[in-house]
Amino acid sequence: MNNDIERVLYSREDIHQVAQKLGKQLTTDYAGKNPLIICVLKGAILFTTDVMREMDIYADIDFINLSSYGNETISSGQVQLTKDLDADVTGRDVLVIEDIIDTGRTLKFLIDLLKGRDVNSVKVCTLLDKPAGRLVDIKADYIGFEVPNEFVVGYGLDYAERYRNLPYVGILKPEIYQH
Questions:
Q1: ∠ CA 130-97-7 to the nearest 5 degrees?
Q2: What stretches in the chain show pLDDT beneath 50?
Q3: Is 4 an active-site residue?
Q4: Catalytic one among 99, 102, 129, 158?
């Protein structure tokens, strides 16, 4: 797997430091609120658990799975809800944790869905923000790193379900995904 990576953008230690920083900030911002943390599957699972371990507050967790990529490197533009939440979000302070915000379509779909379910508040924490890929006007409230407009994998992010288990975030060599 490592041979498929053009270069490492963020090491395990870089990610750990960001998770600590964000966890401390979220502890302050959500003090006394018992937020519902929504992990966007599958990519955000590693980041979600690392950030949650750094939060010193009561918090619940639930999972949602949305897809717009399939096995491609660019979004299809169509967002599909493939696994809905189990929890009732009505009146809750919700924190969505994402792996990456690229076009913004998936996140906009999710925020609209949550607002339609009468949440008290919704904020977004993302490991990676790729503003150069943005097609809709949406921003995260908490950002780990800003990434260039390259195809990144590792630490939960995948290409065709591969590379999620890399302990770092790296740029995938174009010859791997160009057909």
A1: 40
A2: none
A3: no
A4: 102
pLDDT tens across 1-36, in order?
999 999 999 999 999 999 999 999 999 999 999 999
Dihedral class, residue 160 (left if φ above 0, else alpha if ψ from -120 to 50, else beta): left
Is 61 a member of any domain?
yes
The pLDDT of residue 71: 57
In CATH, what number is assigned to the domain containing residue 70?
Answer: 3.40.50.2020
Examine residue 178 and state whether it is found in any structural domain, yes or no.
Answer: no
Nearest to 143 by CA among 134, 154, 130, 133: 130
The number of distinct structural domains making up the chain is 1
CB 69 within 8 A of CB 106: no
- Tokens 């791997």 locate to 176
Q: Which two tokens stand for residue 19?
A: 């998770």
Show the domain range for 45.
Answer: 12-151
